[in-house]
Every structure is written in C-alpha cells, then in structure tokens.
Design a protein that fits this description.
There is one protein chain. With 85 residues, the chain is mainly alpha-helical. The protein has one domain: Winged helix-like DNA-binding domain superfamily/Winged helix DNA-binding domain (Arc Repressor Mutant, subunit A, Orthogonal Bundle), CATH 1.10.10.10. The protein is 48% helix and 5% strand. The protein is built from 4 helices and 2 strands. The protein has a two-stranded parallel sheet with strand order 1-2. Helix 2 packs across helix 3. The model has no long low-confidence stretch (mean pLDDT 95).
Amino acid sequence: MKQKIFKEKVFSVVKKIPKDKTLTYKEVAKKAGSERAFRAVGSILRQNYNPAIPCHRVIRRDGTLGKYNRGNKKKEYLLKKEGAL
C-alpha cells in the first residue's frame, strides 16, 4: 500500500514539472516525501508509459540525462524541444 501511495506522489510531482525545467531523481523523491528513495523514483518512472506524466523531465544529479524507457535519444530530443537543455 505504501508503494502505491509513493508512486502516486511521484507521478503528481512529475506532472507539475514545467516544460522548460527538469528535476533530479532525488528532488522528485524529496518532494514526494522520501528523499532517500531516488532509486525507487527511477524504477517507478521506468515503468511509466502515460504521456501525461512527463518522466523525461527527470534527470540525474550530475546533470546527465539518465535512462528513458522510450530511448535516450528521444529524451534528449524532448528536453531540447521544450527548452530544458
């Protein structure tokens, strides 16, 4: 049950990221209520295929893009198109 609630919180945080901005996995975890659960955030977003949840706007703490379930080139393309890169 806790996992489902955290997942919903993660999706809620990610939905609110503006088009020209990004957040790190750790920032998303913190905003969702569990700062140390940044790996869980990655796992949750890896399974997301809902286009209403812009998981491509979540990047690694070191500024690299991280992985994307639709391909890293697509993630880079979307971020550039939105003005976040």
